[in-house]
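TA notes. Do not distribute before section.
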Amino acid sequence: MEELLGAMEKVKQELESMRAKLASTQQSLCEKEAHLTTLRAERRKHLEEVLEMKQEALLAAISEKDANIALLELSSSKKKKTQDEVAQLKREKDRLVQQLKQQTQNRMKLMADNYEDDHLKAAHDHTNHKPSPDQVI
């Protein structure tokens, strides 16, 4: 009988030890998840900033092409070289406009993905209840 009580006491001690380890591991996991969430938010913010800067650079380049086209058109020179330059600038501007459209689509997709991620995470947080170490046996 004493052997059984001793074995039972040993099992209880092991159980308490495992509960402590579980609690420690759960705490560590929560901290790491919080850190990961912070890093993901920073990454999204940086991506949005980069895409915004790319859009601004493209808009500036388009404006510069427009200004150059206007200057050449106002120069009243009907030379073939001037007309070729205007045509080249218009092609370059069209290429930049296409790039701007692509960047805008990329940015909108990123924003939509972020919106979905935020709402999925919020829904997951409401349904993801972890049991306390006392509830786990």
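Switch to the second chain here.
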Amino acid sequence: MHRDDDPPQSDETDLGALFLALSHVHRRRVLQCLWEHGTELTLADVAEEVTAQQTETSIQNIEPETVTRTYLSLYHQHIPQLEEADLVSYDQENDLVIATSERETVRSAVDTFLDPTATHSPDG
């Protein structure tokens, strides 16, 4: 529901949410993982993949406590941030993380923003 004192949504707001979502390496790794392995994975599988990338080792060599810490960080902080930017959705009942944006869509939004010939807002 829109309230009168809520700021209007704009492309700039959407880009801000996108860049905030992409600002942390865990969130970028979540997207990369989903795009490489299909559009949906369990959060536990995503946590294992992110931890393996972070530690630069195989999943078999990672302590379960390390994966649990990553899982909790993803669950409480990173997945909600990605949801807010409309990059993923989270099905809590099935513990599934689902990519809602394709890699090319995200890349296109970033490229458009970075294109010096594109029209941007007067203050941007």
